[in-house]
Amino acid sequence: MKIRDFRELTVYQNAFETQQEVFRLTHSFPNDERFSLTDQIRRCSRSVGANITEAWRKRRYPAVFVSKLSDADAEAAETTHGIDTALQCGYIKPGTHADLLARYNHICAQLVTMMDAPEKWCSDHERKG
Q: What is the model's pTM?
C-alpha cells in the first residue's frame, strides 16, 4: 500500500501518541519545573513528530529526508534524557519510565530503518511528482 500522507506512517503515529502521553504525564510535574523540565520534555517530544513530518515533505531529496529523520531520532533521544531525569526526580514511576523508554526505543528503531533505506521512501516517481 502506498503511503500518501505522513499521518499514515506508523512511526509518525507512534511518535504522536507517545508525545500525547508525555504531555499528560507532565501535567503532574511540580510547578517549579514548568519552565524547565516540563517545557523541555514537551518540546523535544513534539519535535519528533514535527521532524518526521518535515522529512516526509522533503523526501524528493534523499539526503535531506535522512537528515530530518536523524533530527527526529536526536529529539527522541533527548526526550529519553528528560524521562530519565523525571524518574530520578521522582516525578514518574519506574514502570512508566520503562514503558516510555521502550516506546521511544521502538520509534528510534523505526527511524533508523527508514534512514538505512531511504530509497524505499524517496522513489524516482516521488521526486518527479
A: 0.92
Break the chain into its structural domains and give their ranges: 11-128
Could you tell me if 61 and 121 are in contact, meaning their C-beta atoms sit under 8 angstroms apart? no
Name residue 3's amino acid: I
Amino acid at 94: P
* CATH 3.40.50.300 is held by the domain 11-128: no
**109 closest CA partner among 59, 64, 80, 73:** 73
**Could you report the per-residue pLDDT of 69-93, keeping only the tens digit for each?**
999 999 999 999 999 999 999 999 9
